Structures are given as structure tokens and as C-alpha cells.
Amino acid sequence: MSNGNIGISAKGRFGISVLDKNGKIKKEKSISNTSNVVTYSGAYQALINSTSSLFGIYTASMGTGTVEITRSATGLGSRASGSTGQTSASRVGNEVDNLDGTSTLTLSRTLSFSLGSQVGTFSEVGVYTPFDGEVFIAGQLIKDEFGNPTTITVLSDEQLVVTYILEWTVPNASQLIGTGSVTDADSNVYNYEVYSQPYFSNFAINDSYTVSRYFSALDDEVGFFAANGTTSLFNTGDVGGGFGSGTVVHDGAGTVTYTTQTITLSPAAGDFTDLVYLSFYTGNSDSAADGGVANTTTNTATSSNSSRYPLLIKFVDPISKTSSQSFSIQASFTVTL
């Protein structure tokens, strides 16, 4: 099978301001727009492991470590006690279409320590989720304008404010990511294409709906659709279930592998003809509105709360199933963060 790139990436920036007791910025202690490292575990947590972390609640922490933070880091080198309050961001107004099949979401958060709560000399800063074991999303050593490590000292009558910007690039259109073929028991060869889907279930740019297709739950149904993408030939809900839980494995180095359970339709399950599309979605309805194909030209699955799977499979050579045949399918694919 040939493979293609889905188009997911992450990067970030931060700024630090120290305010006096009257709320005035002390310019000599402020740093702005410094690049930082989004960790592998942070990207996985935000983009795949949770349906809310991309826009979810984050807190900022300071540290005194001196070792450069890498993508494999699981925390600041020497995290200081105390964190900021929690803030979140929204998709609306923060999403820009890159006109290449992807969107970039630039999510800015201002995270403030209370006056006098963070006192000392600090050399690193980072962002964590305050849940799921406090996953380390991103961080960096504090650096001067020349890119050299430096420190910031905060006094008891001063307030520390961290501004964090996370940039997530996600697909907003269907993309051809694989081709291959399967052979049935009668030696008939069927060629197929695999299309990745927009990151969000509702893929309109700047839509308020934030549930992702690229999340770790794989308890989805399989819809069998004819060439028009709307005529439902069969649905795994008709035989009592979908893929089940499946597995999602993150190797800790940026690669996530989805593998579904195998679904088998027995000969007694029924017939279908001219199968072209396999679409995956939640729920037990075999309605095309829930799991069909919205556009057979772009090979994009329906935009709805139920359409939550990252793949759409298209058989270039239509398949038929008779009452004397069984049909099995298992899907597996990888995402690099």
C-alpha cells in the first residue's frame, strides 16, 4: 500500500511579563514571542488523546532547570511549586485556511500568577494540562534576544504573567493518503483508495463545533455505500455492532497508530451490490445523513456529530456481496505528530 501525509503539526511561542504591584510592566524583565517546543506527549494529548484538549484548559508553570527541552520531554527540568489559574481558547475566530488542505489554529492564552505567589529566579517555563496526570504540553528555557539561556527574577511585590500561543495545523479537507488492492476467494482483485478526512467532524472553517475525527475512541460503525455515497447498502449496526474499542498506540516519538478490530459480515448477514464507499461513524443508524459521503468528487464524509472517523475508503472497482459470501474488514493507519 502506498502512503501519504495527513498534514498535522504543532508549534508554539511564549512571552513573559513581570508587573510591579501597580500592574505596570517592568520592561527589563519581560520577554516576548519566543519559540518553544511542543512535546510528543503534548501533541498526542491535545490532537488525539482527548476530544477537548486542543482548546482545553491549560496552566503555566515555571522552573529552574538548565537542560534544553526536547520533544521527548515529559516535564520541565526542575519544576517550581505553584501554577497559574486555568484558561482555555476557542476555535471561532482563531482558524485560518492555509488553502493547501489544512487550517492553522492560533490559540493564545494569558496565564497569570497572583501577586507575590511566584518568587525567585526562574530559567524555564511550560504549559501543562491540569488533568490526565498533568501532561506536559510545551516548554522552553528562557532565552535572551540572542537565543542564549537566561533567567528572570521575580520579587515578592511583583506579579508574573505568561502569554502562551499554541499553533495547531490540522487537515480541513480530504486527502488521498493510500492506495492498494484486495483479492477475494474467487481471485477477483479490487483496487481501493484511502482518503483522510478533515480534522473536525464539522469541518467548516471557524465553526464552533470542536469534536475531532482524530480522537482515540474507535467504537464506530461501518457504513457500506453505493457509488453515489448516499445510498446505504448495509451498516454494521444491522448485525449488532461496529469495530469495538480497537487500539490507539503512541510510540512516544511522535507516531500514533490506529488499529480497529476486525468486523466480519457472515453470509447470512445479507447482500449488497456495487459497494464503493466504506464510511465510519458513531451510532447505530444506517442513515446516510449520519455516516454517508457528503461529496463524491472530493471524497469527503458527511459533516455531522456522528461522522468521527479519520478515514474514508473508496473501492475503485465496486464490490458485491452475495448471501453465500462473508465480508471482513480491518483498518489501520498512522499519524505523525
Characterise the protein shown here.
The protein has 337 residues and is mostly beta strands. It has 2 domains: 2-170, no CATH class; 173-336, no CATH class. The chain has 2 helices and 24 strands. It has helices spanning 40-49, 288-291; strands at 2-3, 9-19, 31-38, 59-63, 95-97, 102-112, 120-122, 124-128, 136-141, 152-154, 159-171, 175-183, 189-196, 221-225, 232-235, 247-250, 255-259, 263-265, 272-281, 293-295, 300-301, 311-321, 327-329, 332-336. It has an 8-stranded antiparallel β-sheet. Strands 1-12-13-22-19-14-15 form a 7-stranded antiparallel β-sheet. Strand 8 and strand 9 (136-141) form a beta hairpin. The longest helix has 10 residues, at 40-49. It is elongated. It starts with a strand and ends with a strand.
Q: What is the topology?
A:
Elements: E1 2-3, E2 9-19, E3 31-38, H1 40-49, E4 59-63, E5 95-97, E6 102-112, E7 120-122, E8 124-128, E9 136-141, E10 152-154, E11 159-171, E12 175-183, E13 189-196, E14 221-225, E15 232-235, E16 247-250, E17 255-259, E18 263-265, E19 272-281, H2 288-291, E20 293-295, E21 300-301, E22 311-321, E23 327-329, E24 332-336
Antiparallel strand pairs: 1-12, 2-3, 2-11, 3-9, 4-8, 5-6, 6-11, 7-10, 8-9, 12-13, 13-22, 14-15, 14-19, 16-17, 17-24, 18-23, 19-22, 20-21
